[in-house]
Every structure is written in structure tokens, then in C-alpha cells.
UniProtKB/TrEMBL annotation:
This is ACADS-like protein. InterPro entries: Acyl-CoA_DH_CS, Acyl-CoA_Oxase/DH_mid-dom_sf, AcylCo_DH-like_C, AcylCo_DH/oxidase_C, AcylCoA_DH/ox_N, AcylCoA_DH/ox_N_sf, AcylCoA_DH/oxidase_NM_dom_sf. Residues 191-331 form the Acyl-CoA dehydrogenase/oxidase C-terminal domain. SUPFAM superfamilies: Acyl-CoA dehydrogenase C-terminal domain-like, Acyl-CoA dehydrogenase NM domain-like. Belongs to the acyl-CoA dehydrogenase family. Its cofactor is FAD. Gene3D superfamilies: Acyl-CoA dehydrogenase/oxidase, N-terminal domain (1.10.540.10), Butyryl-CoA Dehydrogenase, subunit A, domain 2 (2.40.110.10), Butyryl-CoA Dehydrogenase, subunit A, domain 3 (1.20.140.10). Residues 39-148 form the Acyl-CoA dehydrogenase/oxidase N-terminal domain. Keywords: FAD, Flavoprotein. It comes from Mya arenaria.
Length: 338
């Protein structure tokens, strides 16, 4: 909580004073529809991340996509604000919040810029948090908390992707140093991926929310046949369906995060969240392009980028086919015929 307060103060100082009143009203409208009972800490984090994303990430997202560049300055800012280590304990130098907080931060950052969002992924720090010794944490965790260094999780190989258990890379001692990767081919990957899927679900939610906002804004401004297209029922149907998909996926995502935080099994729920949110993101971004018509297809508007960003969330950290296999596998265990 203390960490979040300082995070809030820092972000407020750096970004809120520059927010326009129109932007602030939009935040209130969107953020009012949170989960009933969402704690003050989580609501504050959500608002803080949203304001930061609007001020620092949204303005650069289109350009870094066009230039194929890495948002180095923004990653450093995320690190300074404690947003690269939201769920890492304070004694380890992290922000000291929970996984729900991480999912909330990931969504809001991804709503501003999906590239920045995926850099906050738990895939690198997650297994270190879970398995590293204090000395390993010092070396492999500390420099990664403030954005000085950025880690990655290299599981895919030319010969394996979906089949994580088929990874052939093994740890080897080379002089005094271990050369990556694993001595346990399945269990730790599985736990890392279960948690990571909640993060990708949250990233997909942020992309979906951004696409939805782009569509509803355009629909109210664009006129056809003498009136805003938002007055047309077929456009309204699209907007309604988008909102239902986003909100239902958000509930699944937050539920999976809450199960993890309360140390309950969450493999099935993480897969359900990832499947629902990534498919929602693709559907919402697809319909957003349709609402924008020709402007949806061109790079002057963000809708086509949201679609490309959404599409990868159905592939990495387990394709939608693999999520369905995970869900079905868990269901068959739960409903094991006697
Ligand atoms: C932008 C990007 C970033 C990435 N980042 C990382 C990263 O940071 N670290 C990392 O380790 N990897 C990363 N990946 C790799 C990613 O995780 C894999 O692409 C993904 O897991 C799918 O593996 P694959 O590409 O080998 O597809 P394949 O496993 O070859 O699958 C091809 C198709 O077959 C389907 N399929 C496979 N097995 C089954 C089955 N049993 N039943 C039904 N259908 C099946 C799949 O769903 C898919 O539709 C990244 C990929 C991309 C594109």
C-alpha cells in the first residue's frame, strides 16, 4: 500500500497535471464500471496506470509501430514507477501488490500501447520470484525491476511451440556460468505459463478496450445519411456486443488472478481468461475496423494496429487451440466419471 501511494504520487506529479478535462471525464466514465468491491488500492492503481498510459504511451504507440522501434524511454519510466514489478514483494525491491493488481496494470498499460504492455509480462520475473535463491534474486531480479534491464522467457524453439514439453534446450555449466535453460522440462514451464496467461488475457483486454474506444468515438463523430452512424442500430449492436465481450473477459481475467492470489488452483481459469480475452480482442478490433469503414483499414487510424496487436494474443503463451485443450483436460479431471 505504501508502495502504491508513492507510485500514485509520482505518476500524479509526472502526468496528471497535463491531462485535459475531456480526457479526465472519459476516465471517470470508463473506470466507474469496475468490479463491485474492487479495493481502493486496485482502483487507485487502475486510475494511475490509465492516466500514465494516456499521457506517455498512447501518443507514441502508433509511431513505434510504424518505425518498428523499442519504447526504451517509456520502459524506463514504467520501471521507475514500479510498474515492471507490480507483484514482486517490497522486500525484494518490488511494488508489493498482488496478481490482480498486476493484471489491472497490464490492461491499462496495454490500452495505451500493447508493445509496452507485453514488456511488463511476468514471464521473466515470475519464475525468478518463485524459485530463485536470495543471491540469484540479487543478480537476476534487482536490475530488472526498474527497467535498467529487460528479461525474456525463451521457451519456443524451431522444433517446438505449442508442445512446451518438447523443448530440447538444457542447462549446461560453461566454466563458472550456467548457460540457460531448464533442468525440469514441464512443471516449472507450466506454472510460468499459467500465470503468464493471466497477463496475456489482461494485455488482450487493454487492446480490446482501446479498439472499442476508437470505435465508439468515431461512431459518434462520423455522419452518414445525415446522422451520426452511432444512431444506426446495426452500429449500436456492434458496440453492445463489443462491451459484453470485453466485460465478460475482464471478469474471467480478474477471477483467475484472484484465485492465484488466494493460492487456489487456477490453471483452467487462466486458460479460460486467456482464450476469452484474446478472442474478444480479435472480435472487437475486427468490428472496430468495420465501424470505421475505410478509415479502419488505413494506418492513419489506430484500428488496424489494434487488430494486429489483438491477433498475437491468440497465439503466444499458448494458442487458442491449446487453451481449449487445457480447459477440457481440467474439466475431464473435475468431472471424472466414477
Ligand atoms: C510475436 C511473437 C512473440 C513471441 N514471444 C515468445 C517469447 O517471448 N518466448 C517464447 O518462448 N515464445 C514466444 N513466441 C512463440 C509462441 O509462443 C509460439 O508461436 C506459440 O506457442 C505457437 O507455437 P508454434 O508457432 O510453434 O505453432 P505450432 O505449435 O506449430 O502450432 C501450429 C498450429 O497447430 C495448432 N496445434 C498445435 N498443437 C495442437 C494440438 N495438440 N491440438 C490442436 N491444435 C494444435 C496450433 O494451435 C496452431 O494453430 C512468440 C511468437 C510470436 C509470433
Amino acid at each position: 500500500m505504501a508502495a502504491l501511494r508513492s507510485l500514485g504520487r509520482l505518476v500524479a506529479k509526472k502526468s496528471l497535471k497535463h491531462s485535459s478535462s475531456v480526457g479526465r471525464n472519459q476516465h471517470v466514465r470508463y473506470l466507474s464500471n469496475g468490479l463491485p468491491g474492487l479495493s481502493e488500492t486496485h482502483q487507485m492503481l487502475r486510475q494511475t496506470c490509465r492516466d500514465f498510459a494516456d499521457k506517455e504511451l498512447k501518443p507514441i504507440a502508433g509511431q513505434i509501430d510504424k518505425d518498428c522501434t523499442y519504447p526504451k524511454k517509456q520502459v524506463k519510466m514504467l520501471g521507475e514507477l514500479g510498474l515492471l514489478c507490480v507483484d514482486i514483494a517490497e522486500e525484494d525491491g518490488g511494488t508489493g501488490l498482488d496478481y490482480l493488481a498486476y493484471a489491472i496494470a497490464m490492461e491499462e498499460i496495454s490500452r495505451g500501447c500493447a508493445t509496452a504492455g507485453v514488456i511488463t509480462s511476468s514471464l521473466y520475473l515470475g519464475p525468478i520470484k518463485a524459485y530463485a535463491t536470495p543471491a540469484q534474486k540479487e543478480k537476476f531480479m534487482k536490475p530488472f525491476l526498474n527497467g535498467d534491464r529487460v528479461g525474456c522467457f525463451a521457451l519456443s524453439e524451431p522444433g517446438n511451440g505449442s508442445d512446451a514439453g518438447a523443448a530440447s534446450t538444457m542447462a549446461k555449466l560453461d566454466g563458472d556460468e550456467w548457460v540457460f535453460a531448464t533442468t525440469d522440462k514441464s512443471k516449472k514451464h507450466k506454472q510460468t505459463l499459467d500465470a503468464g496467461r493471466i497477463g496475456i488475457a489482461a494485455q488482450a483486454l487493454g487492446i480490446a478496450q482501446a479498439a472499442f474506444e476508437c470505435a465508439i468515438d468515431y461512431a459518434q463523430k462520423r455522419k452518414a445519411f445525415g446522422e451520426p452512424i452511432s444512431k444506426m442500430q446495426m452500429i449500436q449492436t456492434k458496440l453492445a456486443d463489443m462491451e459484453v465481450q470485453i466485460e465478460s473477459s475482464r471478469l474471467l481475467t480478474w477471477k483467475a488472478a484472484m484465485l492465484k492470489d488466494t493460492k487456489k488452483p487456477y490453471t483452467k481459469e487462466a486458460a479460460m481468461a486467456k482464450l476469452a480475452a484474446s478472442e474478444a480482442a480479435t472480435n472487437v478490433a475486427h468490428q472496430a475496423i468495420q465501424v470505421l469503414g475505410g478509415m479502419g483499414y488505413v494506418r492513419d487510424m489506430p484500428a488496424e494496429r489494434h487488430y494486429r496487436d489483438a491477433r498475437i494474443t491468440e497465439i503466444y503463451e499458448g494458442t487458442s487451440e491449446i487453451q481449449r485443450l487445457v480447459i477440457a483436460g481440467q474439466l475431464l479431471k473435475e468431472y471424472h466419471a466414477s
